[in-house]
């Protein structure tokens, strides 16, 4: 794993979904950061990623020019997040690649928002 845990997470979670997909995932990170709730990882991006995103636990593997461009985009977005220059594209706090993983919690705890790329996004109530 590199020293840029948010960039690694963005690449692993949504690197194959273009910048819009990575920005949607980054928005959940920024929203969790702004909420500053310990069960979501507090206000530290590394902790947020390590606590709630499987992509933070996978080594980055660059397999060609497309992966290299995607990783460079992930690094740029991560730098925007850390500098405070990132503006969330949504107010979502959770996502998954399966809507059914939230189906038993939808309603009382989470509200489904939309699907972007291969991710379903939810907002905590």
Low-confidence stretches: none
N→C terminal distance: 33 Å
Number of domains: 1
Helix/strand-derived category reads: alpha+beta
- Following the backbone from N to C, one meets helices and strands in this order, namely HHHHEHEE
Give the number of DSSP strands: 3
Give the percentage of residues in beta strands: 5-15%
Q: For the residues shown, what is the average pLDDT?
A: 89
- Our count of helices gives 5
| Percentage of residues in helical conformation | 40-55%
User: What profile does the largest beta sheet have?
Assistant: 3 strands, antiparallel
Rg measurement, Å: 14 Å
Please state how the strands of the largest beta sheet are arranged side by side: 1-3-2
Estimate the global geometry from the Cα principal axes. globular
GO molecular function, one term: hydrolase activity
Protein name: Cell wall hydrolase SleB domain-containing protein
InterPro entries: Cell_wall_hydrolase_SleB
Organism: Stentor coeruleus
Describe this structure in words.
It is a single chain. The protein has 125 residues and is an alpha+beta fold. It has one domain. It is built from 5 helices and 3 strands. Strands 1-3-2 form a 3-stranded antiparallel beta sheet. The chain is globular, with a radius of gyration of 14 Å. The chain starts with a helix and ends with a strand.
């Amino acid at each position: 794993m590199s020293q840029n845990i948010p960039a690694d997470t963005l690449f692993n979670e949504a690197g194959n979904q273009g910048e819009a997909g990575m920005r949607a995932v980054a928005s959940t990170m920024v929203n969790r950061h702004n909420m500053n709730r310990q069960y979501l990882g507090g206000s530290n991006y590394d902790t947020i990623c390590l606590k709630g995103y499987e992509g933070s636990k996978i080594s980055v593997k660059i397999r060609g020019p497309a992966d290299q461009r995607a990783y460079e985009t992930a690094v740029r977005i991560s730098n925007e997040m850390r500098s405070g220059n990132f503006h969330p594209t949504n107010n979502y706090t959770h996502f998954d690649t399966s809507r059914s993983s939230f189906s038993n919690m939808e309603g009382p705890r989470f509200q489904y928002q939309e699907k972007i790329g291969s991710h379903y996004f939810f907002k905590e109530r």
